[in-house]
Amino acid sequence: MDGFINNRAPKRIILIFILMLIISAAVSFFLAGKCADVIVAEQIRSGLSFAGGGKFTGAPDPDAVAKGEELLRRYSISEDLLPSVMYSYRSVRKIIFNSLFGSLSAISALWMIISLRETMKIFGTLEKLRSDCLKAAYDTETAITLYGEETGTIHRVCESAEKLVECMRNTSFKLSKEQEMLKNFLTDLSHQIKTSLAVVRLNTDMLSELDDLPEEKQNKLSEEIQLNLDAMETLVIEAIKLTKLDTDTVEYRIELYSVSEIFGLAVKRISPLMRKKGITVKSDLPDDIKLMCDKGWLCEAIENIIKNSADHSECTEITAELTKDPIKTTLAISDNGRGIPQEEIPKLFDRFSSKSNDTRMYSSGLGMSIAQKIVRGCGGEIFVYSEPGKGTRFEFVFLVH
Q1: Fewest Cβ atoms nearer than 10 Å: which of 33, 166, 246, 343?
Q2: 116 pLDDT exceeds 60?
Q3: Has residue 260 got a pLDDT over 70?
Q4: Is the dihedral of CA 276, 280, 281, 284 positive or negative?
C-alpha cells in the first residue's frame, strides 16, 4: 500500500487506464456508427429486395431491389435512404458500441492489472534492497541480496549496491587501521615528549633549588636540558612533516636534479653529527646521473637514512654508490655497523620502531618512516639488505621513465 501511495508510477498507470477508457469509448462510438450505417443500409436493401419479389433468406437481388424501390417510391423509400432514420439503427449501434467498448475496456483493465502487479513487484524488490542498504549502513558485514534476473536492471542495481557496501567495508577497515595507527602514534609521541619534559623539569628543579651545586654539575644539567629541548623540537617538527606526508598535503616540486648534488647536500647538513660520532662518509658519485624528484624532500630522506645508521648501527664508516641502467636508477647507502636481524627489517619503517642507546637522543623515531614516504612520493622505493655483524645496505630505487 505504501508503494502505491508514495510512488507516482502506479498513479500514472491508473491515469493512463482512464485515458485509454476515454479513447476506447470515442473509438467504439465512431466505429459503432460506421458499422450501424453499413448494417442498416444492408437491411434496407434486403427489405427492398423482398418487396420486389426477392427471397427473404437470400442475398439482395439488384433487380428485385429496383422493383421494390418502384413499389415503395410513393412512401419515399429507396436504397439511398439514410440508415439513421430507421428504427433499428440505434439498437444496432448500441449493441456494436457495447461490444467494442466492453472488449477494449477489458483489454485495458487487464493491461492495468498486469502493469500494477509488475510495478508493485519491482517496488517491493526495491524496498527489500533499501532495507538491505540501511542494514549495511550500520553493519558493514551485512550482505546485499542480489534480486531479479541476472541480466536485469534490478540485479545490476543490487550488484552496484554490493560494490558500494564493499567500498564502505574497505573504507571502514582503513579508517579503523588509521585510527589505531594514530592512537599508537599519539601514545608514542606523548611518551617521547613526557620523557624529555621529565628530564627538563627535574634538571630545572635541581638548578633552582640546589644553590651549592658545583659549576661542572650545573653545566651538565643545563646541557641535558638543552639536549632534551632540542629533541622535543625535532620530534614536533618531524611529527608535523609525517602528518603532511600521511595526509598527502605535500606538494612535490618534481624537476631534474643531479643525484650526486643531492647526496652531497645531505652529507653537508648532517656533517656536524658525523664529526661528533667519528663516522666517515665516503662517496664518489657520478655527476651525470640525474633524477626527476623533489630536491629538498629527497635530500631529507637521504639525511634520515644516514642519520639512522649513525644513531643505531654503531658504525664507523658510511659509503654511497650510484648506478643507472635502462630500467632503474639506484642510490645505495651502506654502513659497516652491527647489522639488523632479519625479523626486525619489516618493522624498520614503523613509527618509533628505532630504539637508540644514545642518551643524547639524536633520533626522534620518525625519520625512517618519513624517508620511506618521501621516496615513494617521488616515485621510488627503499629496499633494505642486512646481516648481523656485516652492516646494512639501503637502496633507493627509482624506475626510469
Answers
A1: 343
A2: yes
A3: yes
A4: positive
> Residue 394 contacts by C-beta under 8 Å, 6 or more apart in sequence?
305, 309, 332, 333, 334, 382, 383, 384
| Cα–Cα distance measured from residue 242 to residue 235, given in angstroms and rounded to the nearest whole number | 10
How far is Cα 60 from Cα 52, in angstroms, rounded to an integer?
Answer: 10
Query: For residue 71, how many C-alpha atoms fall within 13 Å in the half-sphere facing its CB?
Result: 13
AA identity, residue 342: Q
Fold (CATH) for 252-399: Heat Shock Protein 90 (3.30.565)
Alpha carbon distance 315, 98 (integer Å): 108
Which residue has better confidence, 203 or 110? 110
- Residues 265-318 have pLDDT tens digits of 999 988 888 888 999 999 889 999 999 999 999 998 999 999 989 988 889 999
Is the Cβ–Cβ distance between 285 and 320 less than 8 Å? yes
Question: In angstroms, rounded to a whole number, what is the distance separating the alpha carbons of residues 177 and 280?
Answer: 41
Which of 43, 27, 178, 40 lies closest to 97 in space, CA to CA? 27
Q: What does the alpha-carbon distance between residue 192 and residue 194 come to, in Å, rounded to a whole number?
A: 6
Listing DSSP states for 304-373 in one string gives: HHHHHHHHHS--SEEEEEEEE-SSEEEEEEEE-SS---GGGGGGTTSTT------TT----S-HHHHHHH
DSSP 8-state code for residue 251 = -
Please, what is the end-to-end C-alpha distance for the chain in angstroms? Answer: 63
Q: Where are the domains of the chain?
A: 2-138, 252-399
pTM over 0.85: no
CB 36 within 8 A of CB 96: yes
> Quick one: which H or E segment has residue 121?
helix 89-138
